[in-house]
Amino acid sequence: MPGTEKKLTNIQWQFMRHAMWGSLGAATLGGLFFSLIWYQTEELVSLREWAYQAWEWSIPPFPGFLVISIMFIILWVVAIVIGSSFGYIYGNLLKKRIEILLHSAMKLERGNLTIRIPDLGDDEIGQLARQLNDMTIRFQQQVASLQRLSAHNAELTDQVKQAAIVEERQRLARELHDAVSQQLFAISMTMAALKRTLAQDPDKASRQAELVEEMAAAAQSEMRALLLHLRPAHLEGKMLRQGVEDLLRELQAKHSLAFHWSLEELPSMPKGMEDHLFRILQEALSNTLRHAKAQRVEIKLVVIENNLRLKITDDGIGFSLDKDRKASSYGMALMHERVAEIGGVLNISSAPGQGTLIEVTIPLIMGRGSEESVNEQND
Could you say which DSSP state residue 311 is in? Predict the structure, then answer.
């Protein structure tokens, strides 16, 4: 990186300047001290004579500005050379060590957790390098643990999905055996009897034919209700209101029941809550189609005082909540479970001959936007 190289170069030259200025300061102090000693020593006279005899220099009794200047210039030049050389060499060594740290840190930033910083000594830079190595090792171990945990979670998710699929298949198999299979068996037995009585008793044969027709219609209704369970459990990208309306239009086209619905514009809700409500509606309508023998079904989806309410009313035969609870316990338990998962309340009102009312109340606390912000905070 160009900016990094410039900063490192500045560090090196700053170290040189500091070393040079330190050397100049030491040379200046040394020159001043030497000058004071020189002018006060008794050897000064002999020094003048020796200089005059050797080079015919004439040194005045008190050295002038020129002598002092020459001495200080020599000291400064020597100080600059020594200080700059020392500063450049040591600064270059320091720069190279810092470069190793920076390049290693950039590799760590790119996700290379296998990088290890070599030994950079026992000073603070060396300690920092060892701390970075230890941090990298711990981070690598944490990443490995997360990967193992992710793989384990994926396995658990697959197991849960497979268990749910097996449970749903077993339930559908029981429903097919207990309802459709028995009805088809009854139809076959009635048809066999119809062949024998057709010639002997036409009136009885006519009643048997009507019975076969009723049982076939019941079996068809049962199959359609079971097929409702095989629909996607999620809205597949649709909003709740749109998904519910599409479902009701489809059921209205396939069944003889009169479906009436009133769906308000709904506020933004978490996707999981919408999927749960959609699945609850599917389960309730499936039970209505299979057991209610209704002619009219009414669905209302409204928001009252920050509570979402789903009402499903039919004019069917109804049932006793105490006596007939066991017969429909699975569907009711499933709806109670789904409603409880999203913090709601399920109320079922019914009586023989008076139809059934299913009411789901869900408090609207967190919208879709709030759910996304919570997910971002968890990430």
Answer: E
**pLDDT > 90: what percent of the chain?**
9
Is the CB of residue 194 less than 8 Å from the CB of residue 237?
no
Q: Residues 77-104: what's their mean pLDDT?
A: 79
Of residues 56 and 146, more confidently modeled: 146
The CATH fold of domain 235-379: Heat Shock Protein 90 (3.30.565)
Count CB atoms within 10 A of the CB of residue 363: 13
According to DSSP, the residues that pair with 311 across neighbouring strands are 300, 359
Q: How far is CA 60 from the centre of its chain?
A: 89
Strand partners, 303: 308
Q: Decide if 282 contacts 247 (C-beta within 8 A).
A: yes
| Other CB atoms within 10 A of residue 115 CB | 15
3-state secondary structure of 343: coil
Q: What is the pTM of this model?
A: 0.48
Say if residues 289 and 221 touch (Cβ distance below 8 Å): yes
Three-class DSSP category at 303:
strand
How far is residue 210's CA from residue 215's CA, in Å, rounded to a whole number? 9
Where do the CATH 3.30.565.10 domains begin and end in the chain? 235-379
Find, among 138, 126, 137, 131, the residue nearest to 100 by Cα. 126
